[in-house]
Amino acid sequence: MSKQVIALAYDGRNAPSVTAKGDDALAEAILAIAREHEVPIYENAELVRLLARLELGDAIPEALYRSIAEVIAFAWYLKGKAPVGFGQRDDGDAPLLLSGPER
């Protein structure tokens, strides 16, 4: 079984985009960097499989907006953040790492 991860970035203005992806050893290295920088990690194997079809720099497809919005809301909640207009700070880009269980 191998590990697979997809890293996304969201700037609050444009659709989230794929910033890193990898399997096996590369996935573990990406996870280590994410943990080191306290990037929220959300495990969802099906979503990772769908996003793995994208290339680096690609924006997520419109069909996945709702699913990714829920993941971003989860990540923001963990970081104590909220969208602009909700009365909390806005630090710009919000990195996020999606991880799929070993397959």
From TrEMBL:
Keywords from the named record: Bacterial flagellum protein export, Cell projection, Cilium, Flagellum, Protein transport, Transport
Record keyword Glycoprotein present: no
Region entry Disordered, spans: 84-103
Gene3D superfamilies named in the record: secretion proteins EscU
InterPro entries (alphabetical): T3SS_substrate_exporter (IPR006135), T3SS_substrate_exporter_C (IPR029025)
Top-level taxon of the source organism: Bacteria
SUPFAM superfamilies, alphabetized: EscU C-terminal domain-like
A Pfam family per the record: Bac_export_2
Function: Required for formation of the rod structure in the basal body of the flagellar apparatus. Together with FliI and FliH, may constitute the export apparatus of flagellin.
Similarity remark: Belongs to the type III secretion exporter family.
Name of the featured protein: Flagellar biosynthetic protein FlhB
Annotated organism of origin: Stutzerimonas azotifigens
